[in-house]
């Protein structure tokens, strides 16, 4: 999952989460969604899935069924997965390793569950939110180094449990207390999560609150559900967009050197959200005749 590190060529990818099915019929909901998504966005280079791939990670037949459906609709596409809470049932997180070929550049005790890669002009970081608070804390030093070392224009981070939740029946997750402050301090552009089975997008966030007009904020997106399950949602003050209909959704993200354009559609093809992330241009000192002469002479 790595392109030429110097590349700034535009690209797009699909984001889904929580396919979380038991049966072939339920997994086909996800397959149909992929079919529609690739018909509308045929240039999408890969699928990023933020976890709860299956309903019960202890059941090998569910993993096999998912892989069968995935290959039927996207055999020529890369798949970028991460662990969700349902995936780690039983020995599910070890089955996960055998199912997918993933980078081995994360922390030693989180190999293939935590990793990063470059694609185009973006740096992607994948975290594991499923081993408890202490394991999450252990990822923070690696995360800080990973984010500070990239020279890519855009930083995109993905994990399963939403830091800014939409489900009113859940308690605040540890990702908000442990991971979100690091992401916002590092100027990460976009966070892709799941877990809550309802589509939602925050305002740009900084320091745990809505960013000021002159501040650069981090946008968090909860990818909704492409499968059979939907959960209640609440319009918390940090949300700029929320979609409560019990309908399968997916996200297409296009990354260029100028901006990130995100389009979110439901299974009927209807646009339910779209937004654009840009970068403020650095101030360029006004050129004088003297500096122009120096540039002309190659000085």
From TrEMBL:
Q: Which UniProt keywords are present, listed alphabetically?
A: Hydrolase
Q: How would you classify this enzyme at the top EC level?
A: hydrolase
Q: What is its EC number?
A: 3.1.3.1
Keyword Repeat part of the UniProt annotation: no
Where does the UniProt annotation place the signal sequence? none
Q: Where is this region: Disordered?
A: 278-299
Please report the name of this protein according to its UniProt entry: Alkaline phosphatase
Tell me which species this is from: Paenibacillus larvae subsp. larvae
